[in-house]
Amino acid sequence: MLNVPSQSFPGPGSQQRAASGGRSKVPLKQGRSLMDWIRLTKSGKDLTGLKGRLLEVTEEELQKHNKKDDCWICIRGYVYNVSPYMEYHPGGEDELMKAAGADGTDLFDQVHRWVNYESMLKECLVGRIAAKPTAPKGLLPNRPDPPATESPASPSYDWFQTDSLVTVVIYAKQKDISLESIIIDHQGGSFRAETILKDSSYLIHIGLSHEVQEDFSVRVVENVGKIEIILKKSECTPWERLGRPLEKHGSLTPRSGAGLYYRKCRLVSKADVTPDTRLFRVALPPDTHLQVPVGHHVYLKLTIAGTEIVKPYTPVSDSLVSEFKEPLLPDNKYIYFLIKIYPSGLFTQELDRLQMGDFVSVSSPEGSFKISQLQELEDLFLLAAGTGFTPMVKILNYALTNIPSLRKIKLMFFNKTEDDIIWRSQLEKLAFENERFDVEFVLSAPALEWRGKRGLISPALLSEFLKRSLENSKVLLCICGPAPFTERGVGLLHGLGFSADEIHSFTAS
Ligand code: FAD
Ligand code: NAP
Fold this sequence. Notes:
Strand content: 25-35%
Bound molecules: flavin-adenine dinucleotide, NADP nicotinamide-adenine-dinucleotide phosphate
Largest sheet: 7 strands, antiparallel
Structural class: alpha+beta
Distance between the termini: 13 Å
Radius of gyration: 25 Å
């Protein structure tokens, strides 16, 4: 609900969205950008009208503030006066008004729980919602963590030790787990292991009773749904207990309601790929285990002018097809991003200013794409525009390497000019060397001498391109780019007779 620049850019109610067809881009209303909002919050202006006081707000009081010029919203027990923010909200005023005078937590979690509203709206804080009289004394208004359920199907954990090792075992009680299902962060004695189980996540969060070494290993026994995390003791002494439980330890939480966890990663290299797109390589902390699933994204967080700003990015591999290369760098310790730097971009300008060794916070992964969608496919069509190419990188890599049933993978790549084509020579080389892969470039603003396809996504371009290798072959179409491109593309694909489950569009998470 708050600050949705990227997910649906321009936001559904935004001034930047075209009236119909989604083509023209109207600039944000003058003086109402995110940076302008940050400046306003730093100006010392009293944005709540309460002269710095914090109130205990009853539900009855909250309900009274339900108009545009007097709009209070409660998120996770904290009440904000969002009226001053109305005009700055890229999703539009109507979206905010949906939660006017009410608890907007669920709506917020559904739309963009990743936005750091605490930081963005700290000057709008009115106070906390008053605990209901029936609530036990001292109960915080925040929703309590769901209890660790004890039913046989719920995950559980155990630990055991030898002289030198401590093994934490998580029993996921689900078979379809992999190394991507477990995210481990171990920092300063705090051990955090999050197991992703379909739509929920199971958290082990413990302050370890003794020190352990930085490196640890992880093993997944897929067929029994067991995860083993092997820690090396710093000293070979017996442990009486694993440690003390920390926040949310043992909880099994729906993923949509769980906050995102960030770790600080160092920028280790940056290379130009096109005039405005760079390949960033960031190093995960040595004591983190995190693998981003194919087609999923993470959020990057930077503090800009004192406010934490978060934007989604889709990790790629270091190059288009890396399976035949000797890994020059240790596996899974780096995350690569292809990021376009926009001249007036709040986040990308700041990212581009980072020096090697500087930190950027990286969230745990999110996304709805499932590699099972690729199983037994015969035709895979990828439609990408600009940096909408990023999810296609790992999909292409995975499909070529792991899906023997695939007869053809075809990428149609839309860009403005030849210079804007990301990894053009790699794509052409791959198409030349691998007869299962074809690529077609389409330019919207080509030079006169361009002999290839030109224009925007259209029925003519698609119907010629989307030829199945066999009649009734099992097919998947993936589409990603600027939101209006994707929306138009999906509409055209339906028009061409493809069903919803044959299309995966990368839009909001
Ligand atoms: P802003 O300050 O938000 O905007 C400034 C100006 O930049 C705008 O006026 C406009 O001219 C231009 N602009 C900004 N955002 C967009 C946009 N999304 N589309 C077109 N023009 C825009 N980007 C990547 O480069 N690489 C990725 O891997 C990537 N992955 C993404 C994954 C997801 C799930 C989503 C939703 C978006 C992804 N994006 C990616 C876009 C990214 O999240 C930001 O929107 C983008 O980097 C611009 O941020 P900014 O703060 O610099 O620009
Ligand atoms: P861009 O260079 O501005 O555009 C790429 C191509 O798409 C150009 O040919 C452009 O034509 C065309 N295009 C733009 N808007 C269109 C529309 N409404 N209808 C048809 N064609 C259109 O793109 P970009 O700046 O790299 O932006 C990439 C987008 O992908 C961003 O919005 C980003 O948020 C999104 N993205 C999403 C994900 C995800 O959801 N997982 C991942 C990565 C990127 P014109 O010359 O006419 O503009």
